[in-house]
Amino acid sequence: MATINTALQNVNKLDLAKEAMAVVKEMEFEILELNKDQLEYGRNKEDKLISPKYKPSTLAKKLSIGRTGDVDLLDKGDFQREMKLVVKSKTDYSIFSTNWKNDMLVEKYGSVIPFFGLSSTGRTNLISEGFADELATKVKAVTKFE
Questions:
Q1: Full-model pTM
Q2: For the CA atoms of the chain, what is the radius of gyration?
């Protein structure tokens, strides 16, 4: 167990943003799944419905296969299946799809409010899926707190 002085020195060494981004990278799969869940319900990063709405022909097709009328960016699944998360810095990450439709869909549906990224509900779900616990484990490892 660390003494108080050692613990304080270790706290001064702690780079919380760096540790948080390490957890983001470790939980890439979970973050991407939460983002895909958001899309399934037609929600963007601000938890608002994605707009503009589908054209009538697309809407009819979606409804005929049991989907909702909300924009979910899911047709054959390629776009969502090819979603990736990249840590850009110790305070920033981005989500995108390597699918050929990425730029077109971002321009059409995500230019005003991005659909990539977790809403407040998604972030709350991420915490319950273990983000806070993983971050606490990393903090304890650096600070040597028991």
A1: 0.86
A2: 19
- Looking from the CA of 25 toward its CB, the CA atoms found within 13 Å total 13
pLDDT in tens, 108-142: 999 889 999 999 999 999 999 999 999 999 988 88
Q: Residue 93 in contact with residue 86, Cβ under 8 Å?
A: yes
Nearest to 69, CA basis, from 82, 83, 81, 57: 57
- Per-position DSSP letters for 2-60, written without gaps between them: --HHHHHHHHHH--HHHHHHHHHHHTHHHHHHHHHHHHHTTB-TTSSB-SSPPPHHHHH
